From TrEMBL:
Protein's recorded name: Cilia- and flagella-associated protein 54
CDD domains: FN3
Chain intervals for the UniProt region annotation (Disordered): 1-22, 703-740, 916-935, 1024-1107
Taxonomic lineage: Eukaryota, Metazoa, Porifera, Demospongiae, Heteroscleromorpha
Protein origin, superkingdom: Eukaryota
Biased composition (Pro residues): 1044-1057
Length: 1107
């Protein structure tokens, strides 16, 4: 595309009068070259945002200066347009797509009279029709195509979704394709614009191929059909020079039809393409120029590509006959068929008639056997593309396999002879090149691809004939592609081994409650072999690029195999925190899960499957966290016995690193898509934050306490006290010496609070977990203060998220209102300009975003507040205008405002109808403005963090307050969840409380578990004790139910009591006085319940407690 743009620049510059001797032109050229001097530095330093912003501001001021009325009559519009577009071509070649779109292509389009951004791209067709000057239409088409191409490649660079997995990415790409369609339609109006039509068609084909490769077939079909129509509607594009592009478009359309289960349309379109190629061949034969070898090669390549498409359906369609007699027959094996002479079947005869050379025939066999969008790990024969019966389809597939096996055996014999003689006479070319050259030698890579296909189709006979010989030849080949296919074949064989051994079951000893194990010893060994092979394969960059689907499906298959086995091992033990470390097989499964985490990170599996990756991290972190002992060990008297040792600290550090990796995946996923605060991924994000905060609080407890001075001792006990002090000092020294010298520093609780900054969500989690996991030295009043801090933080967040989020009505004011927040992450904030009616119906052409940290007394944003990337940069106004601030500090308060500019670069001012001119200074200096111009209104402070769901946080607070003995806070948190899911009856005939159907259907299951836990906690705290319990807790009459001001026994009937009238409590909040198998004694006071629950189990997320 860059070459075509350069050709356009040369052709257009010939029609423009030269003005290089005029002083205005010399001054303009000098300033333009000065601005573009930094482009070379920017190409080598892509991350230098300050240099990019300087270039952006310089170009903005340069065009404003020379488009003003002072230079309007001295520089011709054609000269300025040519310079703008040529500068855009230079920026496009340097991959500065945003600068090229905003300051060059887009700026020229906005200067046209018929430009209307609200109409999309339809205006370009009418503009070219009504334009009387060919140069103006040419400039407009160049700018429109260049602007679309720049926006597309800039979107790919900025968007972390290169595989088009999110719907908003596909919709944005389809919008760009519609713009290209309008541009190509306008180019066809003049035959002189054929090179612009070619440019538009080429870009359309490239984008459509990306959609087709990612499975978006229905979205790619219509643009490809339009591209084929454009190539046939322009006479210059019908020549031999562009035949290769036309054939590629034809084959891409046929591939779309095959994937959409329309083989008849694919064959008809391919035959139509063959007719076009034949007509062009006749014209070339009738022309005066002699046929060359290159032209003959181009025609043969086109005929071969379209002939393979025709054969793909004809080989099955030729058998579509009506059967009058049903006669069972015995199908011969492939070994028996290979003993006959070639051709043996109707399929092989058709191959001989259509394709010359074994390579071309093997290519046809591969394409006929290929199944579009097939799962790489799927088993069984491919689904037929026609309405043939099963027996006829099996006969055709066997004939194709027989022909492919015969051709592959011949070529394997050639490669074996060549390796024995050590003669490298056969060049390593692709199968298509060999087929075009009419060669009889099939490349080794294509043979390995055929073996992979036979493994996938479960063709044991073909594998027995080819597998050993193919692996032997491939093992001695130095070609990288051969090694890549070799690893994939071994991986498929390992997956098949796990599938074959997974069906066996054995019985584990367990008395009357014996269960069947999911795995055997053989299955476990094969599982470890698959994990190690897959782990090494995922580290290969070539495999990550070419075999990503196979690797991702293998990782998911491995996790689906390990997950039930881990759950099965958990179910054999009462204590679910130690089963995986009590056996060798359990430790091996833990190692497999660690390898799965690494492979997930390398392959980017969190993009298509964020919930699966989050579940993997949560299960493995729960296992690792359970290996660490309690941060505080308590003696019978209740006094602390020091801090955790080296093993606990290392395990917690590993758990922290694992959870941080899972949070990074979730952060990247949520940064690339705009989901709600209560979608499943946001729920998983909240679970990960809660688990990470819990681990950090435990790590802070491993910090050795400061040494306290001992009081003066009496002479009678001096000897004994000194001996105890010496022993305690020796134990402390031994423990400190065991810690590695280069151990990771652990932040204290004060450091954690400082790191949370202004993020109220993180502060609430830290306060509630500090109260629940607090050491015994913490007084009840201090725990209550921590819980109240968490409660106030959540209430403040609830008030902030309760603000109206709908789009406000347009306002009439001299300056723009505060921007509207679209998306927020810890390091970036995305805004859109608020609806605004400028004074005197002025048109806004550009917006600039400004912002600063919200600190101090005066937090008003000024034009000099552009210290972060994305601030102070011009963005074109329009319906899709987005302003983004990057590289922000997480958990920090910021304020933002926008400034609006006209198409001449004038800043909208405070005075009604007044525009202030920008001073044209050198880049790097602050843009000046007159007293009438001003920035817009400053918005409310915003925290740079992800928006997390509040309802799980209320559940965490309810559980932590219950564990810490804060009954009042626990009741308030439970009441908040109750109001979210339950409504009060409006009449006397209906029950007092009923569940909200809309809330239940739209709520993830994890949040429903939280709600049930809160109901149990509130029921236990507010219900009266049963009379049969001799150790009941006195009922607190001051507590209130979940809903309503009047006291009542609770919103739901109390659960049935256990033995002796003791109410059972779910999950981690166990109320039994003994965690073992001995007799269980009920607890009668909140303080006793707190001490017991602190020793039994920490409050964890629901996913860790419920299998």
């Amino acid at each position: 595309m860059a070459a075509v743009l350069q050709q356009a620049t040369r052709s257009s510059s010939n029609a423009i009068p030269r003005q290089t001797t005029r002083p205005e032109v010399l001054s303009f050229e000098k300033e333009l070259s000065y601005e573009l001097e930094s482009l070379g530095k920017l190409c080598s330093r892509r991350a230098d945002t300050a240099l990019r912003q300087r270039l952006s501001n310089g170009l903005f001021q340069l065009w404003n200066k020379y488009e003003a009325s002072k230079y309007e009559t001295k520089l011709s519009p054609e000269f300025l347009a040519e310079k703008q577009l040529s500068t855009g071509d230079t920026l496009y070649q340097a991959k500065e797509y945003q600068l090229a779109s905003v300051h060059c292509y887009g700026r020229y389009l906005r200067s046209l009279e018929g430009y209307n951004k609200d109409r999309g791209s339809d205006w370009i067709v009418e503009f070219c029709k009504t334009s009387k000057q060919t140069e103006t239409a040419t400039f407009a088409l160049r700018a429109a195509i260049g602007d679309t191409a720049s926006r597309y490649y800039h979107y790919l660079l900025e968007n972390p979704d290169p595989h088009f997995m999110f719907p908003q990415t596909v919709s944005q790409v389809l919008s760009l394709l519609r713009q290209l369609q309008s541009c190509s339609q306008a180019c066809l109006q003049r035959e002189a614009h054929y090179w612009l039509a070619y440019n538009s068609v080429l870009l359309t084909y490239s984008i459509s191929r990306c959609l087709l490769s990612t499975g978006k077939v229905s979205a790619a079909l219509q643009p490809l059909l339009w591209a084929s129509v454009c190539t046939e509607s322009s006479v210059p594009l019908l020549t031999l020079r562009y035949l290769r592009l036309r054939v590629d478009i034809y084959t891409a359309v046929c591939q779309c039809y095959f994937q959409l289960k329309e083989p008849r349309h694919a064959e008809l379109f391919a035959r139509r393409g063959l007719e076009k190629v034949h007509q062009l061949a006749l014209l070339e034969h009738q022309s005066s120029s002699a046929a060359t070898e290159a032209s003959e090669r181009v025609f043969h390549e086109a005929t071969l590509k379209l002939g393979v498409v025709v054969f793909r359906r004809s080989v099955l369609e030729s058998r579509l006959t009506r059967k009058t007699v049903f006669r069972p027959k015995k199908r011969p094996t492939i070994k028996e068929l290979l003993q006959q002479l070639f051709p043996r079947s109707p399929t092989e005869k058709l191959l001989v008639e259509l394709f010359p050379g074994d390579a071309a025939r093997f290519l046809a066999v591969l394409e006929a056997l290929a199944e579009p969008c097939r799962d790489p790990l799927a088993k069984g024969l491919p689904r037929p593309i026609t309405n043939l019966d099963a027996d006829t389809t099996a006969d055709v597939i066997q004939e194709l396999l027989c022909a492919g096996t015969d051709l592959a055996l011949k070529s394997l014999q050639h490669w074996e002879d060549e390796q024995e003689t050590q003669a490298n006479d056969t060049p390593h070319v692709s199968l298509l090149e060999s087929a075009i050259n009419k060669s009889d030698v099939i490349p080794l890579v294509s043979i390995l691809r055929y073996v992979r296909m036979a493994l996938s189709y479960d063709q044991r006979e073909v594998c027995d004939l080819l597998l050993d010989r193919a692996l032997g030849v491939a093992g001695r080949s130095p070609e990288p592609a051969v090694a890549r296919h070799l690893v994939c074949i071994r991986l498929l064989m390992a997956v098949e081994g796990v599938r074959g051994a997974g069906g066996k079951r054995v019985t584990l000893p367990g008395g009357a409650e014996s269960q069947h194990a999911l795995v055997t010893q053989e299955h476990g060994d094969k599982l470890l072999n698959l994990s190690s092979l897959l782990h090494s394969a995922c580290q290969n960059p070539a495999l990550q690029e070419w075999e990503r689907d196979l690797l991702q499906d293998s990782v998911l298959f491995l996790w689906d195999t390990v997950r039930p086995a881990v759950s099965q091992l958990h179910s054999h033990h009462f204590n679910t925190t130690r089963p995986l470390t009590s056996s060798r097989r359990g430790k091996e499964y833990a190692g497999v899960m660690e390898q799965l985490v690494d492979m997930t990170d390398w392959l980017g599996l969190w993009r298509p499957h964020p919930l699966i990756c989050g579940e993997l991290v949560m299960k493995l972190s729960c296992l690792k966290e359970s290996l660490a002992s309690r941060p505080y060990r308590h003696t019978p008297s209740g006094a602390g016995e020091g801090f955790a040792g080296e093993n606990d600290r290392d395990v917690l550090l590993e758990t922290q690193s694992l959870l941080e990796r899972g949070l990074r995946w979730t952060h990247l996923f949520r940064s690339s898509c705009t989901g709600g605060k209560e979608d499943p991924v946001a729920m998983m994000h909240g679970e990960l934050c809660y688990a990470l905060t819990r681990v950090k609080v435990k790590l802070a407890a491993t910090i050795p306490p400061p040494a306290t001075p001992e009081p003066s001792l009496k002479p009678s006990s001096l000897h004994r006290k000194m001996r105890e002090r010496q022993e305690k000092a020796e134990r402390r020294d031994i423990l400190l010496s065991s810690l590695p010298a280069t151990s990771t520093p652990v932040p204290s609780l004060a450091d954690l609070k400082t790191h949370c900054g202004q993020n109220h969500y993180s502060l609430a989690l830290l306060s509630m977990l500090e109260a629940a996991l607090a050491p015994p030295q913490l007084t009840p009043a201090q725990r209550t203060n921590l819980l109240n801090e968490a409660l106030s933080s959540l209430q403040q967040l609830d008030n902030e998220q309760g603000l109206p989020r709908s789009l406000p009505l347009p306002v009439s004011s001299p300056s723009p209102p505060p921007p509207l927040l679209l998306h927020q992450t810890p390091t970036s904030l995305t805004f859109m300009p608020a609806p605004w009616n400028p004074p005197h119906n002025q048109q806004v052409a550009y917006y600039r975003l400004y912002g600063r940290v919200a600190e101090g007394s005066n937090v008003k944003v000024r034009l000099s507040d552009k210290a972060f990337p994305g601030l102070g940069t011009e963005v074109s106004a329009g319906p899709n205008c987005q302003l983004k601030a990057r590289d922000l500090k997480p958990n920090t308060l910021y304020v933002f405002a926008v400034a609006a500019y006209s198409k001449n670069g004038e800043l909208f001012g405070r005075q009604t109808g007044q525009l202030s001119g920008l001073s044209h200074q050198r880049t790097g200096q602050t843009s000046g403005h007159s007293s009438g111009g001003s920035i817009g209104e400053t918005g409310r402070p915003i925290v740079s963090c992800h928006a997390l769901p509040l309802l799980p946080a209320w559940s965490y607070l309810c559980q932590c307050a219950f564990v810490a003995g804060g009954e009042e806070v626990a009741l308030k948190a439970a009441r908040t969840l109750w109001n979210r899911f339950v409504e009060t009856g409006k009449s006397d005939t209906t029950p007092g409380y009923r569940l909200k159907s809309t809330a239940l259907t739209s709520t993830p299951s994890t949040l429903l578990h939280h709600f049930v836990y809160s109901v149990f906690i509130h029921t236990h705290l507010t219900s009266p004790p049963l009379p049969s319990s001799p150790h009941h807790r006195p009922h607190n009459k001051e507590t209130t139910p979940l809903s309503g001001p009047a006291p009542s026994p609770g919103p739901l009937p109390p659960p049935a009591g256990g033995p002796g009238g003791v109410r059972a409590h779910p999950g981690a909040l166990s109320l039994s006085a003994d965690c073992g198998d001995g007799p269980q004694t009920p607890l009668s006071s909140a303080s006793e319940r707190y001490r017991h629950t602190r020793h039994c189990q920490d409050p964890g997320p629901v996913s860790e407690c419920v299998e």
